[in-house]
TrEMBL record:
The protein, known as: 4-coumarate--CoA ligase family protein
GO molecular function, a single term: ATP binding
Residues passing through the membrane, by range: none
InterPro entries: AMP-bd_C, AMP-bd_C_sf, AMP-binding_CS, AMP-dep_synth/lig_dom, ANL_N_sf
Any Pfam family matching the protein: AMP-binding
Record has Nucleotide-binding as a keyword: yes
Region described as Disordered: spans on this chain: 350-375
Annotated source species: Nocardioides pocheonensis
Signal peptide annotation: none
Biased composition (Polar residues): 350-363
Keyword ATP-binding listed: yes
Domain AMP-dependent synthetase/ligase: from-to ranges: 31-389
Domain AMP-binding enzyme C-terminal positions: 440-515
Length: 531
C-alpha cells in the first residue's frame, strides 16, 4: 500500500517559474533586499532584480534566443546568476546549469549533450569555458562573461541592450532546467525539469521548510546544483527572504558573514555541519542570529546534527531528494523537534512513496512500532522529472509505468511515519554532496599504462564522509603506488571527482556476466591508500 504524505496537498499553479515567483510582487516587496553579494556587500532589491530579469530576457531574445533554446550557465553564486537564470527562463529558454569546478572536457560533454547555443561564464572560469565553447561550436558573440572580458559581452552589456522582454507563450510543461545527474549509475544525463516541476517543488517545500520574509539566508550551496537552485534561489525568492551569496565555501569567511549580516537560516551540506560541530573557529564568532539550519545533498548523521544544535543553540533539520525529483522529496518539518535527527522526515505534500523489497518486489509494510524492513524508496508526484534528455531507455529504467521514480536508495519507515535512508542500491558516490559516477573514474583509470583492471566505490574517510576509493589491479611488470594512482586521476578530473583512497588487488571481483561486485568491495576491511 502506498505511503501518503502526512501533509495536505498544496495548490500548484499552472504557470511559469517567473510568474510564480515574481508575478504578484507588491510595491513594498519591490523595495526589500533580494540578494546581497557577500563578497562585495552590494545588494539588489526585489524591484531591481525583476527589472534585471526582464532586461536579460530582452537581451537574449535580441541575440536570437528562441523558445526551447539551451543556455549553459557556468558560474558560482552571485546576484548576476539569479538575474541570468531567470532572464533566460523568462525569454522562453532552457538553462543547463554547469558545475563551476568542471574541466574544459567535462564542460564540453555537457555543452554537446545539451545542445547549448549560448554559454554564460565568469572570468575565473574563462579558460575552461572558452576552450569548451570553441570545440562545441559556440561562437564568440554567444560566449558571455558576466564580470567582463575583452571581446565578450558582459552582464552590463545585457542590461544596456534596451530590448524589451519578449512576449512568449511558455507551457508549464516546457523544460526549464537541464541539470546533469548520474541517476543511479553510469555517466551524467540531462535531467529534464519543467516549469511545472520547479513550481511544484517550491510549493511543496514552502511550509515544511519554513523560510519566512524576515529571514536572511546563507547562499553558499551552489545554485548550479539543483538543491541550491530550488531551495535557496527559488524558495527563498518566493518567500521574499534576503539571500546572501558566497561564491565558494570558506569556514572563516562564512562565519564572519553569518555574524556581520545577522543571518537567520543556513542551508548546508554535511561537511559544513561537521565544521560547525567541531572546529574551534566557531567560538570566535557571534552566531546567535541563526534560528535554523537545514542540511541536504548527502546523509547527515544524528550525532553531528545534535552536536550542532547544542553548540549553536539552534535547530537542525535535514531532507532528502535528488535531481530527478526537482529535488526535494522528503523533509523533517521545521516544527518537529520530536523526530530522530537521523531521519529525512516525511514525504512532501502531493507525493506518495513505496518501499519495495528489491529481492521479492513486494511492498514493505509500515510498522505499528519500531522500524520496518528496508526497501528501495520509490517516489511519485508532480516533482518527478519529465525524463532524461534524449535517453528514453534510461528514463524507463528510472520511472515505472505507474509514475514512481525508483531512487536506488534503501530506506526504512518508523512508527512515526518518518523515512530513514539506510543504504544504497545505486552505484553513485556522493562526495560532499557532489555526484561522482564510478564508471567514469574506472574508464579513466584503465587508460593508465600500469593499470590492468580497476573498480571504484564509495568508502568512509576518517571523518565518516563518503569518498571515492579505487581498487586497482597492476599490470604485470608495472610498479604503482597509491600516490601514482591518486595523482594520475587528480590531473584529469574536477576536484570533487578525485580518488581519495587506493587499494591494490590481485583481481576485481565480478559476477558471471562480468559486472563488478561493488557490494563485495564495500564490505572489505579498510586498508591502504591515503584519504
Amino acid at each position: 500500500m502506498p505511503i501518503a504524505s502526512p501533509f495536505p496537498d498544496v495548490e500548484i499553479p499552472e504557470c511559469t517559474v517567473f510568474d510564480f515567483l515574481f508575478g504578484a510582487i507588491t510595491p513594498a516587496e519591490s523595495s526589500a533586499p533580494a540578494i546581497t553579494d557577500g563578497s562585495t556587500g552590494l545588494t539588489t532589491s526585489y524591484g531591481d532584480l525583476v527589472a534585471q530579469i526582464e532586461a536579460v530576457a530582452g537581451a537574449f531574445a535580441a541575440r536570437g534566443l528562441r523558445i526551447g533554446d539551451v543556455v549553459a550557465l557556468h558560474s558560482p553564486n552571485s546576484p548576476m546568476f539569479a538575474a541570468v537564470f531567470h532572464g533566460v527562463l523568462r525569454a522562453g529558454g532552457t538553462v543547463t546549469t554547469v558545475n563551476a569546478l568542471y574541466t574544459a572536457q567535462d564542460l564540453l560533454k555537457q555543452l554537446q549533450d545539451s545542445g547549448a547555443t549560448f554559454l554564460v561564464t565568469v572570468s575565473p572560469l574563462f579558460d575552461a569555458a572558452s576552450r569548451a565553447a570553441a570545440e562545441a561550436g559556440i561562437p564568440t558573440h554567444r560566449l558571455i562573461v558576466l564580470d567582463a572580458m575583452p571581446g565578450h559581452d558582459d552582464f552590463a552589456a545585457l542590461l544596456a541592450q534596451g530590448a524589451p522582454a519578449p512576449r512568449v507563450d511558455i507551457s508549464p510543461d516546457q523544460v526549464a532546467v537541464l541539470p546533469y545527474s548520474s541517476g543511479t549509475t553510469g555517466v551524467p544525463k540531462g535531467v529534464m525539469l519543467t516549469h511545472r516541476n520547479l513550481v511544484a517543488n517550491v510549493a511543496q517545500s514552502d511550509e515544511v521548510i519554513g523560510i519566512r520574509r524576515d529571514d536572511a539566508v546563507l547562499a553558499v550551496l551552489p545554485f548550479f546544483h539543483v538543491y541550491g537552485l530550488t531551495v535557496l534561489l527559488n524558495l527563498a525568492l518566493r518567500a521574499r527572504a534576503h539571500l546572501v551569496t558566497m561564491p565558494r565555501f570558506d569556514l572563516e569567511a562564512c562565519l564572519r558573514l553569518i555574524q556581520d549580516q545577522r543571518l537567520t537560516y543556513l542551508f548546508i551540506a554535511p561537511p559544513v555541519a561537521v565544521a560547525l560541530a567541531k572546529n574551534p573557529l566557531v567560538e570566535d564568532f557571534d552566531l546567535t542570529s541563526v534560528h535554523s539550519i537545514f542540511s541536504g545533498a548527502a546523509p547527515l548523521d544524528g550525532e553531528t546534527a545534535a552536536a550542532v544544535e547544542r553548540r549553536l543553540g539552534t535547530r537542525v533539520r535535514q531532507g532528502y531528494g535528488m535531481s530527478e525529483l526537482s529535488p526535494v522529496s522528503h523533509v523533517v518539518p521545521i516544527g518537529r523537534d520530536d523526530l530522530a535527527r537521523s531521519s529525512v522526515g516525511f514525504p512532501v505534500p502531493n507525493t506518495t512513496n513505496k518501499l519495495v523489497d528489491p529481492s521479492s518486489g513486494q511492498e514493505v509494510t509500515p510498522p505499528d512500532a519500531g522500524t520496518s524492513e528496508p526497501g528501495e524508496l520509490w517516489v511519485k508526484g508532480p516533482n518527478v522529472m519529465a525524463g532524461y534528455l534524449s535517453n528514453p531507455e534510461a528514463t524507463l529504467e528510472m520511472i515505472d509505468k505507474d509514475g514512481y521514480l525508483h531512487t536506488g536508495d534503501l530506506a526504512v519507515i518508523d512508527a512515526d511515519g518518518a523515512i530513514h535512508v539506510v543504504d544504497r542500491l545505486k552505484e553513485l558516490i556522493k562526495y560532499k554532496g557532489y555526484q561522482v559516477p564510478p564508471a567514469e573514474l574506472e574508464a579513466l583509470l584503465l587508460t593508465h599504462p600500469g593499470v590492468q583492471d580497476a573498480a571504484v566505490v564509495g568508502a568512509q574517510d576518517d571523518n565518516g564522509e563518503e569518498v571515492p576509493k579505487a581498487f586497482v589491479v597492476v599490470r604485470e611488470g608495472a610498479h604503482l603506488t597509491d600516490s601514482d594512482v591518486i595523482d594520475y586521476v587528480a590531473q584529469r578530473v574536477a576536484p570533487h571527482k578525485k580518488v581519495r583512497q587506493v587499494e591494490f588487488l590481485d583481481a576485481i571481483p565480478k559476477s558471471a556476466t562480468g559486472k563488478i561486485l561493488r557490494k563485495d568491495l564495500r564490505q572489505r576491511p579498510s586498508v591502504g591508500g591515503r584519504a
